[in-house]
UniProtKB/TrEMBL annotation:
GO terms for biological process: glycolytic process. Belongs to the phosphoglycerate mutase family. BPG-dependent PGAM subfamily. The active site is at H10 (tele-phosphohistidine intermediate), E85 (proton donor/acceptor). Keywords: Glycolysis, Isomerase. It comes from Candidatus Uhrbacteria bacterium RIFCSPHIGHO2_02_FULL_57_19. InterPro entries: His_Pase_superF_clade-1, His_PPase_superfam, Phosphogly_mut1. SUPFAM superfamilies: Phosphoglycerate mutase-like (SSF53254). This is phosphoglycerate mutase (2,3-diphosphoglycerate-dependent). CDD domains: HP_PGM_like.
Amino acid sequence: MKTTLYLVRHGQSEARARNIVQGVGLDIPLTPEGVIQAARAAGVLAGYKFDKIFSSTAVRARDTAAIIRRRHPGVPYEEIAELNERSKGVTEGMTKDDFAAKYPEIIEQWNKEEDARPPGGENFEDVANRVVPTIERHVAGDAKGSSFLYVIHGNVIRAILGHILDVPHRLRPRIEQDYCAFNVARYDHERARWSVECVNRV
């Protein structure tokens, strides 16, 4: 018996289009291109069956999920704050150029693949500590053998896949996640073992 997780990143947001740092505290909607990306993802996922759909509470994830859910009427849906994007702390709302100018030491640490936190924000270990227990509760619940769809964020997906594949926190940014890409992971309950079927499919 296997439980299957489909992990989908949201579409492009207005913040990315404007080169603004966003995370959990900056709630920005999709761009028109992001809506198109979500519609394409919905078309790809239309042939899949899901027992439940989850999203974060961010508008960019909720709106992406809403477009996908039109193809899956009647499937239960839940928004979960623990699945929100990595917090960038006080830097949220800055342009990326201003961020680099004000906090060059953080950029330098990231370039060295150190798991640094922006001031007041989270690093990848923090994200994993928040996200992974939620996923594990779903997998260990009564609905073993189910298929769950998560419409979430790039760094949240990296935290989940990094945990499954035992990738060190500092190296999880290497896991590419394009807008509206989807990833598939399965948990084999008999063998107590994860497998990853695909990563960053667009």
